[in-house]
Amino acid sequence: MYETEKLPITSWAEDDRPREKMMLKGKHSLSDAELLAIILGSGNRKETAVDLAKRILADSGNDLNRIGTMAFAELQQYNGVGEAKAVNVIAALELGRRRSNCQSNEVLQVTRSGDAYQFFRRDMEDLVHEEFWVLLLTRSNKVLRKEQVSKGGMNATVVDPRMVFRSAVALGANSIVICHNHPSGEVKPSENDIRLTRKLKEGALLLDISLIDHIIVGANTYFSFADEGLL
């Protein structure tokens, strides 16, 4: 049996071509695969750009966040995706992520866990390693500064309590929010997370500083120790 050749996108009906479809019907009419196909620009000898995009999405569980964490080498394993296309895909997804998180710059006061999450997610959501950050606040919970405390591996990062409180003391912060990420995407705290939170809360009390929350950033979600009554 002869293999059926894939019809190139240029031979499709105009309404079905991703670029033309966007121009005619608007960006919201396109599927994730069609949008990704536009970024890819072309497929390979056996796949159209749309077919290639569908395969990349399927391999990623149709999770754009997963594709956003892919390395250049991972994308280049797909036939038809060279260095330039891999750069285009990663750049486009990073731009989308920054757009979705740009509201974090507008939050100047932390009144709930979601506010704190917005401050941290831009820096931490797509990381493949763990990082630990601290948000320094005034008495009225206005933001003084956000700082990275430590950077670790895929499963853990070492946190020195002295580094957590150093800037808080120097700037006269009245309260802090601490945060770390789970590269796995799951946000359930580990026993180590709980022990560290208790240790830092005790240290904050000695310095007359309030630890008002500990945020764990996951895949487009977060866990708040304060919301869950763990502080």
Which bin fits the share of residues in helices?
Answer: 40-55%
Mind telling me the C-alpha Rg?
Answer: 22 Å
- Report how far apart the termini are: 67 Å
Tell me the total number of β-strands.
5
- Major sheet description: 5 strands, mixed
Strand order of the largest sheet: 2-1-3-4-5
- Could you report the average pLDDT, rounded to the nearest whole number? 85
| Silhouette | elongated
Order of helices and strands: HHHHHHHEEHEHEE
- Could you say which structural class the secondary elements and strand pairing correspond to? alpha+beta
Estimated share of beta-strand residues? 5-15%
* Uncertain segments: none
| Number of helices, counting only DSSP H or I runs of 4 residues or more | 9
Description:
There is one protein chain. By secondary structure, this protein is an alpha+beta fold. It has nine helices and five strands; from the N terminus they run H-H-H-H-H-H-H-E-E-H-E-H-E-E. The chain has helices at 18-25, 32-40, 49-59, 64-68, 72-75, 83-101, 113-124, 161-171, 191-206; strands at residues 131-137, 143-151, 175-181, 210-217, 222-224. Strands 2-1-3-4-5 form a five-stranded mixed beta sheet, with helices on both faces. The longest helix is centred in the middle third of the chain and has 19 residues, at 83-101. 29% of the residues are buried. The mean pLDDT is 85.
